[in-house]
Each structure stands twice: as C-alpha cells, then as structure tokens.
Inverse folding.
C-alpha cells in the first residue's frame, strides 16, 4: 500500500485566494482525519470522517474552512478566502475501525499564505 | 480537561547514550497511547502503540512503557544514533469516543555524533 497520499506537498498562495488540499487515505480505512500543525499549538484535529460522513468538525477554525469526502478514496480541505494565519502544515491521516490499530499519517501539505 | 504534556521540549545527547522521553496525561481513562516520530518537513511515523491493558511495548531499540494510574508513558531509546534525531510525539486516545485523541507538542531529540 502506498500509504496516505497528500497533495500538493507545498502550497504558496496570496491572501484571499482559495486553497484546496487533497488526500487519498489507505484503502479499507474507515476513518479519515484532517490535522493542522503549528509551532505554537502543535497538532490540532480539524475534522474527521467515518465512512465518508463528517462526524466532528468542531475543530474547524471558522467558516472559511470546509472539508468534503465524496468517496472512500478522496477527501479535500478547502480554505476560502485564505489568510496569513492559516499558514501551517496540514496533515491527513486514516485508520480502520479497529481502535487497536495505529493511525497512519500522510506527508503533509505545507501551506504558506502571503 | 484532557491534556498531554511532553517534557523536555528539546533534548541533546551524545551518540551511544541511552535516553528516556516523557509523556504525561491528565486523565487515566485512556484507550491506548501511541508514540510517533516526525522528521523535519515530513509526516508522522508510528513507532509503538500501547493498549491501556499493557505495561510496555518493544520494537528494536525502542521500549515504551505505560503507567495509567500515574498518567505517564516513557519512550526509552537504547544506544542512540544520529539517525534517531527527530521530534517524538505521543498521542493519547481517550475512552468515550473513537476520535478523542490528543497529541503532545513533542520532544525534539538531537543525537550528536
């Protein structure tokens, strides 16, 4: 298995632009998570899906953030409009229903909003 | 409030030394605890997963212990190598909800040749 695949690896955009981050989870994993990592706050859970359905989006910072999972093999995290304070590394992770199995993380997308 | 703390934030040791990284958590009602490694600019790699019923897990030179009652876990690295240099994070999965997972901020380890 290729693991969790995220794209792009790096994104530099201007303030006010729309940004879309993409994630392909591991096949067969029922759960998909979006995390944001910053130096100040560490890893924060933004939203997670179970069987393509959003379960908890309480970590999404504001209405400018939205996430979708149209099928079991693809998810997007969109920021519109982007702001400099959104600059961070965004990780996607997936795991199966069995809580005894570890999370698997993607390599992340480093977002810089100028 | 369910929190995870890792101290120290950074650690520098000479090659060959045995070392211990610490993780503490505020609520003993945990389902499991996972240790990750993160290399600069990379994602998180799972190292060890300890279930709440277990006391320790071992993988190669790594040994993770868990003491729920005291709210502590340690990651022991034997005979450290420069290649062990990375940030190590612990993540606690709490009881009472599949995705109540809290990450520590990590300990940045540097092993000096």
């Amino acid at each position: 298995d290729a693991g969790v695949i995220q794209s792009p690896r790096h994104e530099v955009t201007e303030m006010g632009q729309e940004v879309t981050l993409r994630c392909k989870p591991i096949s067969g994993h029922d759960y998909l998570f979006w995390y944001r990592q910053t130096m100040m706050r560490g890893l924060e859970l933004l939203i997670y899906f179970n069987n393509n359905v959003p379960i908890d989006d309480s970590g999404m910072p504001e209405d400018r953030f939205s996430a979708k999972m149209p099928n079991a093999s693809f998810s997007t995290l969109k920021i519109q409009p982007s702001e400099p304070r959104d600059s961070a590394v965004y990780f996607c992770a997936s795991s199966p229903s069995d809580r005894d199995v570890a999370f698997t993380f993607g390599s992340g997308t480093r977002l810089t909003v100028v | 409030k369910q929190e995870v703390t890792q101290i120290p934030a950074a650690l520098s040791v000479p090659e060959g030394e045995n070392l211990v990284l610490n993780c503490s958590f505020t609520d003993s009602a945990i389902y499991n605890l996972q240790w990750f490694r993160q290399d600069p600019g990379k994602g998180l790699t799972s190292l060890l997963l300890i279930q709440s019923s277990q006391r320790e897990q071992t993988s190669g030179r790594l040994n993770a212990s868990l003491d729920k009652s005291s709210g502590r876990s340690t990651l022991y690295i034997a005979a450290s190598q420069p290649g062990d240099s990375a940030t190590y994070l612990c993540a606690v999965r709490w009881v009472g909800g599949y995705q109540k997972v809290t990450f520590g901020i990590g300990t940045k380890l540097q092993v000096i040749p």
